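Priority: medium. Attachment 1 of 2:
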């Protein structure tokens, strides 16, 4: 395996171009991604963001070493939607206690759901409510620098104080409306000014502050938490495309003005939108699905979907492109995963052991002599090109079917780099059992006159070097023999 450190290139939303990634400090590469607002179960769009930045985390760990990468993904646990949910679900409890119940339950569910999608735990998962002091300190600095002002019981950011406000989104200041979670009010100096601190009523959660008992605005949370755990300027900030404006734009404004710095993060990365069966996901359309629903219920496509199938389906589209989440896509991902697992088990069986061999046996499969694993790393290094990476992994599976003793390790490790385990759910089911399962499935398809499925299974087995011979048994029933052809 090539041990040279691969060159990474990422598309930067701020510069609207792709450029080589050069960390500020190779011994401390820092990544921040916006996490969930924990008022309800996370939907599949949230799942896509979690998978994308988990993949980036894995790639950075591979290149720079796990001990040299810090990944922070916050948890927003103070929010007006959380307040409303707490009042709805726990009307008899004091609000602060009710809010804690809502956020503890939904945060735990989020962790369970994204773990099922193959996501590693970030190094740090700070809660907004545990960083109020840091938010207040940043607000105080903004007031002292003239970038914020008090009015009508609130503290607002003065957007006119930042001459280049709007660089990330490309919006002119005159075109921007308020980005904070408050209406445009007459007490604002400018319609684009947004809230840093707002007063709380006795029925709302709040913290004492120099500006009265209140709670933070949305944007100040991430600015304060990223500064606390990653520093005033760090390497990469990620999130969904919908967060570019106003959230990330306003994060940049707060952080740069508070610190007098040229940048909050050097690279900004955003994943594309997700729609379901060709339509925007919406509760009113009946196509709004949570990760939990897909994993545990039959609400989508009439069946449950394993986490690794959901992850692979997401990675089959480049992270910056929009994705159409369909039953057909999940079925395609499942078919690919089954084939990869068959290849893994064939390699394991060929080596006479319970696991695949080390990389020493990996051979070049790419035209330039790069090994399959190196080709996967290189594809991911090109702005997380998972489409090319998955193509290479499928080529590795074909190579395993042709020469199982040489490519098994590259296949398994390449899939693991994408966060996908090839160990079959029937943990030690060997290659022979998998083949016989496929032969039985084909026979069932033939008997039910599903000839397209029968042909697909035959082709799949033929690609693995398995020849089928149909015949009639003593009772005159259709039967099938198989043998390995090399």
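Attachment 2 of 2:
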């Amino acid at each position: 395996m090539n041990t040279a450190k691969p060159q990474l290139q990422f598309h930067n939303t701020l510069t609207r171009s792709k450029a080589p990634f050069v960390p500020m400090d190779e011994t401390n590469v820092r990544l921040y991604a916006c996490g969930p607002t924990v008022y309800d179960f996370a939907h599949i769009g949230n799942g896509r963001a979690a998978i994308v930045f988990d993949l980036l985390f894995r790639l950075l760990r591979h290149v720079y070493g796990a001990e040299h990468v810090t990944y922070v993904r916050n948890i927003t646990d103070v929010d007006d939607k959380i307040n409303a949910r707490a009042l709805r679900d726990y009307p008899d409890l004091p609000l602060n206690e009710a809010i804690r119940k809502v956020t503890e339950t939904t945060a735990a569910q989020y962790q369970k759901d994204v773990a099922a999608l193959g996501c590693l735990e970030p190094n740090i998962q700070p809660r907004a409510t545990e960083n109020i002091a840091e938010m207040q300190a940043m607000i105080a600095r903004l007031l002292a620098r003239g970038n914020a002002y008090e009015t009508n019981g609130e503290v607002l950011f003065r957007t006119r104080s930042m001459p280049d406000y709007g660089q990330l989104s490309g919006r002119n200041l005159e075109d921007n409306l308020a980005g904070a979670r408050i209406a445009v009010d007459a007490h604002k100096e400018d319609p684009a000014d947004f809230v840093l601190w707002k007063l709380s009523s006795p029925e709302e959660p709040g913290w004492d502050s120099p500006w009265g008992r209140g709670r933070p605005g949305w944007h100040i949370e991430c600015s304060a938490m990223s500064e606390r755990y990653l520093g005033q300027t760090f390497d990469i900030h990620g999130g969904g495309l919908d967060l570019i404006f106003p959230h990330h734009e306003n994060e940049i404004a707060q952080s740069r003005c508070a610190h007098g710095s040229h940048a909050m993060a050097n690279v900004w990365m955003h994943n594309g939108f997700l729609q379901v069966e060709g339509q925007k996901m919406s509760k009113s359309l009946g196509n709004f699905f949570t990760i939990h629903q897909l994993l545990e219920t039959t609400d989508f496509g009439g069946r449950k979907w394993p986490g690794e199938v959901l992850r692979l389906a997401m990675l089959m589209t480049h992270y910056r492109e929009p994705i159409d989440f369909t039953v057909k896509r999940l079925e395609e991902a499942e078919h690919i995963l089954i084939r990869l697992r068959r290849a893994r088990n064939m390699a394991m069986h060929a080596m006479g052991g319970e696991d695949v061999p080390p990389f020493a046996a990996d051979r070049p499969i790419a035209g330039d002599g790069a090994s399959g694993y190196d080709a996967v790393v290189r594809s991911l290094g090109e702005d997380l090109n998972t489409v090319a990476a998955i193509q290479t992994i499928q080529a590795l599976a074909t190579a395993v079917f042709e020469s199982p003793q040489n490519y098994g390790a590259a296949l398994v490790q390449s899939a693991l780099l994408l966060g996908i385990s090839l160990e079959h759910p029937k943990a030690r089911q060997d290659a022979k059992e998998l083949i016989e399962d496929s032969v039985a499935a084909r026979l069932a398809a033939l008997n039910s006159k599903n000839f397209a499925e029968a042909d697909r299974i035959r082709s799949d087995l033929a690609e693995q070097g398995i020849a089928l011979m149909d015949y009639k048994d003593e009772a005159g029933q259709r039967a099938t023999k198989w043998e390995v052809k090399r």
